[in-house]
Specification:
Layout: H1 2-12, H2 51-70, H3 74-77, H4 86-107, E1 122-124, H5 131-135, H6 140-161, H7 169-180, H8 188-193, H9 207-218, E2 223-226, E3 235-238, E4 244-249, H10 271-283, E5 292-298, H11 299-303, H12 309-312, E6 315-317, E7 323-325, E8 339-340, E9 346-353, E10 363-367, E11 378-380, H13 381-384, H14 388-393, H15 402-417, E12 424-428, H16 458-463, E13 466-467, H17 468-480, H18 482-491, H19 502-526, H20 528-531, E14 532-533
Parallel strand pairs: 13-14
Antiparallel strand pairs: 1-11, 2-3, 3-4, 4-9, 5-9, 6-7, 7-8, 10-12
Helix pairs in contact: 2-17, 10-18, 15-19, 18-19
The chain binds adenosine-5'-triphosphate and manganese (II) ion (MN).
């Protein structure tokens, strides 16, 4: 029995760290951290909505859509008082902002000025909300009129654009390529660009996508250079056949949880988050993330030996005898945060196709109205003004278009993947007015699985508008099981293992229900036709 007991004890003893695959290290108590609370797997929040209620909601919304699309007149469906006018709200806002300016000037003396924050107005975090300002925001009557007005404008936008021709990136570039480098027209890069349209950046069922992913995963690296934009290290890989790709290296293990005392803006970028975010976007049917795939590179052969001089200069050998590089950027580009092959030359990363950039193609970079303050001591305006959508977003002409609903799609998407870092919205301006957002830069998503960041839903909660077709797709995905679809998708074609740990996958299902719950609340307040918009975009 002695021998038997000894074996039992051995089995229960914690495994030495080296024997634990890194993504399951989470299940093991950190025996060195004496005060660490035991890892809790229970989510902090869950939704109140039931499966049955979600089904009822869907039926309700589907029926209402028939009314909306076959309604005799949009003006009857969304009536506006003859005496009401939009301009009055604009004038009021201008007056309000002037007053705020004056107040700020007089306050400025005794306030420590945080001069490197952006120009969006912010409120000190610890002060009470300014009651005089809140009273003066839009009233209930104006809110109803304004909502109807927005519905009418979105309907008008739909009428103007429903017969738009679909344009591809290849179309935009054809003439110039033909003149300057006609051989590029025969590359598989160009073939991919014929599938990147104003509505979606790839065709999920095409051979071109398959080939593209294969290329990103296996194509020989011709040159590695640093991307100059951005806060964290990113490598541009030149691949054969005209492709350029963005490589984000492994930085933290899959179970790394954003440090509780870190702000989202100093959060490290995660290659596995970029990959997982691509799969989630595809499953939700947006097709707005340029294709990304995981790749194992040889840090010496694929990066050091192909590196530009600038990048090559930052390579060194670590005490553990691994090859590392530092790169140049404003966060984590020093010797203590270097990217190292481990073991040996093995380095994981995400590889995303780079879409053409200026001067070839123009991009719009739209400041997100719900961007966070990016300051440790200030809050953004939308955080203290529940009427922010009426006071700002609805009054902004730029949002009297598909952009408003694209932003709601993005809010839903970002909530599911837990991305708090959407400071800008990107789209290809060269496409003109009817162009979808491109969901770029998802490296700071999937930071925590034990927390659902409800503020990411602020655009949906405050504006209470949602695209019908997105809802219909979310509902379909819900029925099939989002987590099941994501798990299956990640097993298909990925060489890297366990992109998302189970806790992150489970969080997706939980968050989808919370999203439905938010829409449910909106609909209780504003009715189905007040919230759902069929703008003809699928
Ligand atoms: N796949 C892509 N195709 C085209 N351009 C891209 C792509 N990915 C990134 N870019 C461009 O490079 C910029 C920086 O990339 P990214 O946002 O991923 O880096 P970042 O370090 O997070 O930047 P920031 O700190 O500004 O958020 C983007 O704003 C975009 O203009
Ligand atoms: Mn970023």
């Amino acid at each position: 029995t002695n021998e038997f007991e000894r074996q039992e004890q051995l089995r229960d003893a914690p495994l030495p760290p080296g024997a634990v695959p890194f993504w399951s290290a989470l299940d093991h108590q950190n025996i060195y951290d004496l005060y660490a609370p035991s890892a809790s797997k229970e989510p902090k929040q869950s939704s109140n909505i039931t499966r049955q209620r979600i089904e009822e909601l869907f039926q309700l919304i589907r029926n209402a859509r028939t009314d909306q699309t076959h309604s005799v007149s949009i003006k009857k469906l969304y009536p506006i008082d003859p005496g009401w006018n939009f301009q009055k709200l604009i004038d009021e806002r201008v007056a309000r902002e002037k007053e705020d300016e004056n107040k700020k000037d007089s306050d400025a003396h005794d306030e420590a000025n945080d001069s490197n924050t952006n120009s969006t107005k912010t409120t000190p975090i610890n002060s009470l909300p300014d009651l005089t300002t809140i009273e003066k925001t839009v009233n209930e009557y104006d809110k109803i009129q304004l909502r109807h007005y927005i519905h009418q404008l979105l309907h008008k936008w739909k009428k103007e654009h429903e017969n738009d021709k679909i344009v591809t990136i290849a179309d935009l570039m054809h003439d110039e390529i033909l003149q300057e480098e006609p051989s590029r027209l025969n590359t598989s890069w160009y073939a991919c660009m014929t599938k990147a349209t104003n509505l979606r950046v790839y065709d999920p069922h095409s051979m071109e996508l398959k080939r593209l992913l294969n290329h990103l995963q296996n194509g020989e690296v011709i040159e590695a250079s640093e991307m100059s934009q951005g806060t964290q290290i990113k490598i541009i890989l030149d691949l054969p056949d005209g492709f350029e790709a963005l490589f984000k290296p492994y930085r933290v293990p899959r179970n790394y949880q954003t440090l509780p005392d870190h702000f989202y803006f100093s959060d490290v970028e995660r290659h596995h988050a970029e990959i997982a975010a691509f799969h989630v976007d595809r499953i939700l049917g947006f097709y707005r993330v340029p294709p990304v795939i995981g790749r194992l590179v040889d840090i010496t052969r694929d990066i050091r030996e192909t590196a530009t001089e600038e990048l090559a200069k930052t390579f060194f050998t670590s005490p553990a005898n691994n090859t590392c590089f530092r790169g140049h950027c404003s966060y984590y580009c020093d010797t203590s945060h270097a990217v190292c092959g481990k073991p040996g030359n093995r380095l994981e990363g995400s590889v995303q196709v780079l879409l053409p950039r200026p001067p070839e193609i123009d991009w719009d970079k739209i400041t997100h109205p719900y961007r966070r303050s990016y300051s440790a001591v200030r809050k953004a305006k939308w955080e203290s003004d529940e009427n922010y959508c009426y006071d700002h977003v609805f009054l902004d002409e730029e949002f009297h278009s598909r952009l408003l609903l694209d932003m709601m799609d993005l809010s839903a998407y970002d909530f599911l993947i837990g991305n708090m870092d959407r400071h800008h919205m990107m789209r290809i301006g060269s496409f003109g007015a009817n162009t979808a957002l491109i969901h770029l830069d998802n490296g700071r998503s999937f930071g925590r699985y034990d927390h659902d960041e409800l503020t990411i839903l602020a655009p949906i909660r405050q504006c209470c508008l949602f695209r019908y077709s997105t809802f219909a797709r979310l509902h379909r995905v819900y029925r099939q099981g989002l987590s099941t679809l994501v798990t299956r998708s990640l097993e298909n074609g990925e060489k890297l293992q366990k992109i998302l740990i189970d806790e992150h996958v489970a969080a997706l299902d939980r968050r989808l229900e919370i999203l439905f719950d938010h829409l449910h609340v909106c609909i209780k307040t504003h009715t189905v036709k007040g919230v759902m918009v069929d703008d003809g975009i699928d």
